[in-house]
Amino acid sequence: MPPPELPPPRSRLPEAASRFGAHVLAEAAARARDIGAAAGVLPRPPMVSGAAAPVPATPSAVVLAPSAGVPAPSSSAPAPGAGPGRVLGGPTGLGTASLRMLRRGDALPAPPAVTAGAGAEAGAQGKAIPGLYYHPIPEPDPVRVEEVSRRIKAWALDEVSLYPDDWEEEFDGFSVGRYMVGCHPDAPTIDHLMLATRLMVAENAVDDCYCEDHGGSPDGLGERLLLAHTALDALHTTAEYQPQWAKSLHADAPRRAYRSAMEYFVRAAGPSQADRLRHDMARLHMGYLAEAAWAQMDHIPEVWEYLAMRQFNNFRPCPTITDTVGGYELPADLHAQPAMQEVIALAGNATTIVNDLYSYTKELDAPGRHLNLPVVISEREGVSDRDAYLKSVEIHNELMHDFETAAASLAAEYPVPSVQRFLRGVAAWVDGNHHWHQSNTYRYSLPDFW
Fold first, then answer.
1. Could you read off the pLDDT of 206-241 as tens digits, one per residue?
2. How far is Cα of residue 385 from the mean position of the Cα atoms in its chain?
3. Distance, CA of 115 to CA of 70 (rounded, Å)
4. Would you call 32 helix, strand, or coil by DSSP?
5. Prediction pTM value
6. Contact in structure between 100 and 404 (CB atoms under 8 Å)
7. ∠ at Cα 351 (345, 353), nearest 5°?
8. What is the DSSP letter of 298?
9. Directed axis angle between helix 338-358 and helix 373-381, to 10°?
10. CB proximity list for 378: less than 8 A, separation 6 or greater
11. What is the DSSP annotation of 208-259?
């Protein structure tokens, strides 16, 4: 096995940042009038050798105009460059133009009407779902995409022996390099992007090989997930049994991928960032087990039960590492704030429903019955496939508006630079996730419902 790459340098906050306490948070609102400079233009993270392209300067100043037919951000969003008011109106930057200021208790503006054709964006890279609320992003930097794609394939083949030769086309078709570059526009180097890319590939290997397409089964899933999870959260046992556990981490492709991806991540992340990821991966595995139990019972859950499962079996581990990939750290006590947890949960829920919607026809064509939100709504509420799909679009849109409202409120409540940047990063991940689903015509096509 070739030696691992050197871990990317990680920005460290001043020591005082780790001691953010209740008194700091209570005074945050009072300092709001003085935060224009703190939360405006962020310094460019340092570059290291091996970076294929510099991160765009001052990502917080990038403003995207919606494409024709895309629901526009709320007209109440402050104009860019408006000083403190811009910050209080919510984060700005790539993918965050719609984060609008709503204080707790304010009424939520009605979302844009979902009408046939609204939100459609046809192009060479795929068509967006009509009526879906989303924000377009520029095409990911092709230089970075090429380099991340090259490195991740080398890692998959040479370091972890992830897939046999006949899976190569599917691996290439996944376009994971383009996915991660689009989701992490503020990553300072290719090495930082690779942290997210390895984890994404490893998570998909577990899903495919343990749960779904490539030999997965609900039978015995709990044991497989538990043993794989020890590649993320190390076993601490006696000297007699430790070597047997260590050997088991090389037993199959998912465990090899988890072990390697986590080793890279831990070397670049702070202890609280690594533990945060372990926690979110446990959430993900619990969601896998719930879905497997329904498959074993041949049971269609209630819609609310399905949505509960999807809050765990979702993309949450991806946006939650946005600060590590960005080369900085959101302090643990700020990450643990209930309002921040709500924002992250809503982001994960909305992006996962995007997956349900874009993968709908792919799953219908696959063997067996695959649960997704339109299927559950159709079965449980007795409506047509088309009506169930369109209702799922509405549910996604409501989750997106709730996410944006919660993020804007949190940005105003905690005008701390690391909070502002983290919220921008999560919003960018949400938008990049949609862009990848929309544009990946190798994997996805839309149903004929319009």
1. 988 998 766 678 888 999 999 999 999 999 999 999
2. 28
3. 12
4. helix
5. 0.75
6. yes
7. 105
8. T
9. 80
10. 384, 385, 387, 388
11. IIIISTTT--STTHHHHHHHHHTTTS-----TTTHHHHHHHTTSSHHHHHHH
